Every structure is written in C-alpha cells, then in structure tokens.
C-alpha cells in the first residue's frame, strides 16, 4: 500500500490546482475554438494576465496570513487607500514617484502593524480585528473622497500598461512577488516559524517560536502586498479610486484564490505556488467566459461552484489519506 | 485561522471567567444601557412607546439575522451567505409577485422555503463534504449574487405587493397606549422566544458542545453533523424572514442585503459570543444586534454622516471586543 502511493506522483492540494488549471485550459481552449475564437490570442492572453496581476499580488500576501492561521479582511480598503495615497502624492509629477511609493509602503506597513498588534496584543479574533480596521479605513475613504482623486504621471503608468511580448509588466511583478514569497516561506527561518505558528499556535510557542512576533510580521507583509496592488491599480487607472478595492471584492476573492490553491484555511498547510495556480485558474475561467460571451453574472455562479468543489475535493483527499494512515 | 475551538485552559472552568469574561452578556448590556441613555438625552421622546416600537421595528431584521447567525457561530462555523440571501429573496419576491396581491402568500412561503433550502445546502456541503463553512458560504454568496443578477438581467424587475410590504411596514393598529404594534416586532418576539427555547433544549446543548469541542461532542454521542446542518438551516430561515421584513421597509434593489453578513457577525460578537464556537448566548447575540442598531441611531442623531459612521462603528467594535478579550485573560 505504502509503496504504491510512494511510487505514484502524489496529487496533493497544492499541485492539484495546476492539474485543474491544465484541464481548464484544454477544455476551455477547445470550447472557445469551436465557438470561433481563440483563448490563446494576443489580446485575450494579455487581458487575462493583466487581470491576474492585481488579485495575484493581494493573494500572495493573503497566503502569508492564512498560512499563519490568521486572515486579513482589510486588504480591499488598504488597496483603495494606497491607490489614493499614490496618486495624490505623485500629483502628476515624475519626480514624486519615489516619495509616493515610500508613502504607500509606510502607510500599508503601519496598517499591517496595527492589524498584527490588535490580534496578538489585544487578542482580538483576526476576523473581527481586520474587519474593524477595514471599517475604519472605509469610513475615512467615504468621508474624504467622493470619486477618483490625484493623478499618476505617464512615467508611472508604464507599470500598468507596458508589456514584454504578451506578458504585462504587472504580471511579471506578481510573479516576482510570488517568487520572493516562495523563498521566504520555504527557505527562511521566518517561513518555518510561520508554518509552525499556523499549524499549532500553542505547540509553536512552547517550542520557542515567538508567535506574536511572527503574526505581526505576517500581517505587515500581507498589508504591504495590498499596498503594492494599490500602486498597480493607481498606475492602471491613472488616478486613485476610493472604491476600487471593495468593488473588486479583493478581500474575499483573495481568500478564495488562496484556498483554491490548496492552502488550508485553518493554517499551517499550503504554499504560495498553489496560490499562483489558484489566481491563474480564476483568471482563465474569467477569460473563457469572456471569449464565449457568457452572461458576466453567470461567471460568478461558476466561480462559486468551482471554489467550493475544489475545497471539497481537497478535503476528500485529506480524509482518505487519514483513513489510509489509520488503517496502516 | 484563529477560529478553532478553544482547547486547553481556556476551554475549562466556566467559573473562572466570571460574569465579565468571554461569552457573558454583561458587557453588551452596559454598552446598550449607555447608548440608550445617550439617545434619550439627545431625543427625549425616544422613550414614548410608539417611537420605541418604531425603533424596534427597524431593528427587527438585524436582530433576527443575528439570532440565525448565532446558531452557526456557536457551533464553530460562519455564514457569509446571509447578506446575498436577503438580496436574492427580495429580488425573487419582487419578480414573482410583480404587483399581483394574489401571489403574496404563495411567494412568502416560497421565500421561506428557499431560505431553508439554501441553509440546508450550506449545512450539507459543510458537514458531508468537509468544506470549511467560511468557504462554503463564501461560494454560496458568489452563487446567489451571480444567479440573481443573471436571472434578472442586471436590474431588479417587478414589484412587491402592498400585502407583502405590510409585514415589514404595518402593524396592529389602535392599541391603547402603545399605538401601533408592528408585525415586525411580533415576529421578532416569536422568533426570539423560539431561539431561546431551542438553546435550552437538548439541541442547544449539543450545539454548544459541538462548538466547544467537536471531537468530544462526537465521542460523547452527539450528532455533530446533524446539529451543525440544522444551525445552517436556522440561519437561512432567519435570513428569509429578515428579507421579508426588509422588503417591506425599502425599495427593491441589489443593495438590500449588501454587507449584512458582516453586520450580523459583528452584532453576534458584540454580544459576547466567541468566534470559533462554544461560548455565548443567543440573548447576547440579539442584544448585540440591538446595540449596533442603537449605535447607528445615535450616530444619526448626532449628525455623524453615514460615511464616518462606519469608522466609528469599526472603532467601537474593536474596543468592545478588545475589552472582552483582556478581561477573559485576567
């Protein structure tokens, strides 16, 4: 029994999503081709990758939070806030791009710090803490802004519009962020502590991991990723937008992408590679439906079904593995 | 996520936590009284019975939603689908009734049935397919929003009949001293009574045990999957009732239920119920919803605009939960 499972390439939750992605690409490609279009044409590929970039960067940050056994519901508002900070600081001038980026890093990092401190020092449940912080930022945004504000110089719009061949620069940024995250999670001491904390907080603490400090850093990283996504959206829109994050549903969608990628919501299991797969899968489904000109709202129905079905399959595999172990 | 059932010292000894710790309703009662006093100072005629009843009428949908959400949360789960369910129900009702008074009662029955069905699906997917409820109900949220938009082609159609709206708007008129007793308040009282009875029954005790420690509950012979599923059905049913009342208050739009899932969860937590399950009372959850509604009323009276209100709301929730958490530790 054990030798059999050892020889067969194991499909666990994080590489399962790549299999699903491959199958979706093949089936979707055929469907679109019979419809007379092309899923792999220049235009559709570019817009597909473009869409994946924004959500992807947020989802990488969310992966950290979920791996640590936490989660961040404030990211959508952080995105809106940082897009405004970026655009207003730049105010259309090339020379102010760097200060704007620094301001975004400072503000998003500070929000992550507050999230982390609320969760660890005041012991507020992560769901409520980040929801409360999100409400605070939402209030500030709605009070201060009625519509788009600030403006982004043309030089900064390269981030949103340039591309290398069919690959947008923003997508490369997403892959870069994901690669750094992969190294941090899999190769650094912090990464190991992160997994340990998410796996079992008490065991990690008793083993000498400073779990509070791990969680605080995790939330700073998560918010910073949302800040980067805010910069990207500001560059894409040419201005800051007070509702771009909430309307894009980045909070729940990023969590969905992470879970779709096989990271366990309870923490401690999964990784950033799965998240990249999850983000791409969502983007490909989007792309297929766009090409087939299916009702845009129906897309959301399919998305909901896919997310639940994927997690159900992971859960089933996990259960089988446990049963096998128990039998052995 | 930090919603696992508490284990170790925190799960033991109800006595050590005392009257102020997690799960207790004392903090929410204090906050509610303070807010009610503040509202009374600002608007002295708030305490006239008719005004008070009108206030309760407005609060009824949120209190009912919070009661439903309580059953799910105390068993250690989440229901993120209730906001979209409320929207779906109102839009469905409007399209099916389409101004025809004769269709009212069949549609009311259908709306209730649909709510229970959505809850049943949530419960079965969570317990049989072992999908975390956060994901199940998030998926259901996407499905309901998408389906409703698809079905109506992007904007709500039809109209609710006057009979349908009566449930949320009107009441028994000409009652001495009280004036009008709104139907919404009567429905609220009945449901609140049922919820309290349910939590005192064996079902309620098993539900609490499941939320505290599902494994122990199962080993002790509790039908864990069964009670968790029922909790979701209750939540779906409550969302349906809330939708009927909300449909009476306002117009038909896709915004009716927007964000209500978070408001309901917030209300429940404000009422001293612990996310992750096992602790807290349904009375606390309903008081939490009443407190939240009072807070919004007060902010309104103080002239704090809708925008800043959400910031104040966020701050007060953080403060209330933080104080609860710190007290639980000492």
UniProtKB/TrEMBL annotation, chain A:
InterPro entries assigned to the protein according to its UniProt record, in alphabetical order: ABC_transp_permease
Residue stretches spanning the membrane: 17-40, 52-77, 97-119, 126-146, 166-185, 214-234, 297-316
Pfam (any one): BPD_transp_2
Compartments it resides in: Cell membrane
Membrane topology qualifier: Multi-pass membrane protein
Annotated CDD domains: TM_PBP1_transp_AraH_like (cd06579)
Keywords: Cell membrane, Membrane, Transmembrane, Transmembrane helix
Name recorded for this polypeptide: Ribose transport system permease protein
Species per Swiss-Prot/TrEMBL record: Asanoa ishikariensis
Automatic annotation (TrEMBL), chain B:
TM region(s), chain numbering: 20-41, 62-83, 103-121, 128-151, 181-199, 225-246, 252-275, 282-302, 308-326
Residue ranges that the Swiss-Prot or TrEMBL entry lists as coiled coil: none
Chief subcellular location: membrane
Keywords: Cell membrane, Membrane, Transmembrane, Transmembrane helix
Organism domain of life: Bacteria
GO CC annotation: plasma membrane
Cited InterPro entries: ABC_transp_permease
GO molecular function: transmembrane transporter activity
Membrane topology classification: Multi-pass membrane protein
Protein localization: Cell membrane
PANTHER family referenced in this protein's UniProt entry, alphabetically: ABC TRANSPORTER PERMEASE PROTEIN YPHD-RELATED-RELATED
Name of this protein: Ribose transport system permease protein
Organism the protein comes from: Asanoa ishikariensis
Lineage: Bacteria, Bacillati, Actinomycetota, Actinomycetes, Micromonosporales
